[in-house]
Amino acid sequence: MTKGTALVTGASTGIGATYADRLARRGHDLILVARSADKLEALAQRLRAETGVAVEILPADLSDAAGLATVEQRLRDDAAVTLLVNNAGIAGEGQIATADPALLTTMINLNVTAVTRLTAAVAPGFAAQGNGTIVNITSVTALMPEAFTSVYPATKAFVLAFSEAIAAELGPRGVRVQAVLPGITRTAIWEKESLEHIPAEMIMEVDEMVDAALAGLDLGEAVTIPALPDIAGWDAFVAARTALRPGLSLAHAAPRYR
């Protein structure tokens, strides 16, 4: 990867903090974004001491319009940024019949709106330079919405489709786009009690997940599913989806509807 500055959202803990650690050790300067200034500063001090890279913290709540606008402006203005990691997100809305509408709005703002607008903020500069990388953290639940809650998988399905679309749009202009689909990963997004009821063989440690995602980036993958044993499974899924295209938009309804 071309070195430069990496901006990582949701960087105070878990996947985001691990990305910050790994990217610093690869030689990237960092801009760390999350709500907790204290946690960001503690991580920044450690990474400065251990790696010698420049680390700036940018405290912001990306579910809030003002916080999102602050980070958008930084991405538009800072030509040193060569890598954006859209990691910030929340889950845990529960059943739709009893979900808190305010939580649903916050989830969509963070998981969908922030990813879209931060990408839109950085894309013009990347495209103009013919260089840059966008990493969007989505989820395997995007591929199996019936197996989880309703809104979280829908937001992650958006991120996957969005990533594939912008890869097609920006790839010819020299911009790399990677969607990362973790399975269950041991982070704060999962309550400890919830993990206790999940088979251990289904839970990946965050270090291994991020290292696999970065290996996928190095391999040039547009979609990385760290736990998937054989990438041929994903290729077959995409091929089956592509095979539907000729019949998806026709002048007349299918015979079964007539």
From TrEMBL:
<keyword id="KW-0560">Oxidoreductase</keyword>
<dbReference type="InterPro" id="IPR002347">
    <property type="entry name" value="SDR_fam"/>
</dbReference>
<dbReference type="InterPro" id="IPR036291">
    <property type="entry name" value="NAD(P)-bd_dom_sf"/>
</dbReference>
<dbReference type="Pfam" id="PF00106">
    <property type="entry name" value="adh_short"/>
</dbReference>
<protein>
    <recommendedName>
        <fullName>NADP-dependent 3-hydroxy acid dehydrogenase YdfG</fullName>
        <ecNumber>1.1.1.298</ecNumber>
        <ecNumber>1.1.1.381</ecNumber>
    </recommendedName>
</protein>
<dbReference type="InterPro" id="IPR020904">
    <property type="entry name" value="Sc_DH/Rdtase_CS"/>
</dbReference>
<comment type="function">
    <text>NADP-dependent dehydrogenase with broad substrate specificity acting on 3-hydroxy acids. Catalyzes the NADP-dependent oxidation of L-allo-threonine to L-2-amino-3-keto-butyrate, which is spontaneously decarboxylated into aminoacetone. Also acts on D-threonine, L-serine, D-serine, D-3-hydroxyisobutyrate, L-3-hydroxyisobutyrate, D-glycerate and L-glycerate. Able to catalyze the reduction of the malonic semialdehyde to 3-hydroxypropionic acid.</text>
</comment>
<comment type="similarity">
    <text>Belongs to the short-chain dehydrogenases/reductases (SDR) family.</text>
</comment>
